[in-house]
Amino acid sequence: MTGSARLDDLLAEARYQRHRYDLYRAKVYGPLPTTMTRLRELEHAYQGAESRLRRAQQEHAPQDRG
What we know:
Order of helices and strands: HH
Shape: elongated
Number of strands: 0
Distance between the termini: 30 Å
């Protein structure tokens, strides 16, 4: 997989995980039952995806040579 394709995949994963986390966090304020454990699981998945994306972006960033 090329670097650009990997970054695209990681970006899509991070967006997906953030979306799932945001939806569940909003659900906490509604009338349907929710658990804090599930919210923490989704937050952890989101943070992991963001971390992998940041690491990949740093690895593929152009080096400052000035």
